[in-house]
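User: My advisor asked me to double-check a structure prediction for Reverse transcriptase domain-containing protein before group meeting. I don't want to rely on an old file, so could you generate it fresh from this sequence?
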Amino acid sequence: MEGKENKDCVKQEQEEMNEELSDRLPGRSARLKEGVFEEHETININSGELIAIPKPGKPKGPPKNLRPITLLNTIRKALSIITLHRIRPHIEEYLSHSQSGFRPERSTSDVAWTHKWLAAKAKKEDVEIKITGIDMSAAFDTIDRQILLDIIERIVEEDELRIIRFLLSDTVINTRINGATKERPFVSNIGTPQGDSLSPVLFSVYLENALKEVRTILPRPTNKLEKTLPTEIAYADDVDFVGLNFVDTEEVQNTLHKYNLLVNIDKTEFTTLSRAGTEYKNTKKVGTLIGDEEDVERRKRLSNAALTKLLNVWIKGDKIKRKTKLKLYRSLVKSILVYNCGTWALTKSEEEKLNAFHRKQLRKVLNIKYPVKITNSSLYNKCEEHPLSIYILENRWRLFGHILRRNIEIPANKSMNSYFATHGKKFRGRPLTTLPVVLNKDLSRLQENTLQLTTREDLEHLRCIAQNRQQWRELSTRIRKAAEAPPSDD
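Assistant: Sure, here is a fresh prediction for Reverse transcriptase domain-containing protein from the sequence you gave:
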């Protein structure tokens, strides 16, 4: 009876997929599964065009500074999306909590958040935290497909495996050079095509399998502090190992090499977080510098460069509507300026400088120059903007609540728990400006308030509040209004 029930389940899933394809893909595409998987028809969805895109900030010329992207047809992309939707629950169960890349409700923000709390821990106590960061070379292009399929076979259902096997088989690639396609196709039998939504997830599965073996060769935490730290922080192929000592990268490299994963030695980083140290502040993790002041200055430079590129748009006056200009500014300039701003911990003077910088950009967007004058409040109203310090505060509390609602085992939550577990000698005097200190300062602005963030118990209380999104929104609104209120005369 069990065999019959399993066959019925598979048949029902196949019918559901046919309906799904029929709903989403008109015409010929609706026959894709029936033709390919049941009648063995040939439908050309495994061909693509290879183009090379220069990596941002890298000098032009060397092939290593190019990122290969495969342009795939729409039918394949649609099938990849449907397949990803079906296998997502199995994949989520397989991946470790340390992986943040290409996962629902995870992003670079919780990776940056983790590093900021680890830095805060090192500043609060007399401890040094070591981070060994590795990065893969051409990671997507080195995957052994047979090993990948063997891993996938243990995770997904049979019909889902057949679809993935089909998507990875007989892939044919043409190259596009200077806008023209060279009709010299070649068969690709390694890696996953970078061009659809399924490829990065398949890579994460492949890397996770390799990291499972890496974890067996790394020394286990013995120190009380080390046991509380998140031992691993990953975003796609960027992996950081955290502890009180650096890991043996040669051992890690040899283990990953078994899976055809090549560690980029030039990008391997050894970072020491400490109260006295300053070098770590310029260490970049997922596009964010660990030092807040350093990261803000870098964001200013990058956003100004983007603003200058659109100079012709800003100076055209009435030819382009103000609403259109502001849309362009928010999409192409402000988004660069405030990237991961929810992880920043800034002093009052640093916030004021950033607000002034933001207003200067808004004046350029509206082409307001001397001798024309405009008050700050009028400028904000005209642009439908708020001081950037308020925007940062809102993002900080939105991200804080989002992380508190995630699994307790993700690195961001483990780093917060570790911060409140005392392991070293605390430094005397006024605490340095760090993310937990700023969050507690935000709470202190509230009147008739019993909330604070100075102990693990306080953190758990806020975690309980965060589970109710409405309550958390109300708390965040109260904090924002308190920050916007003029200073008291008392």
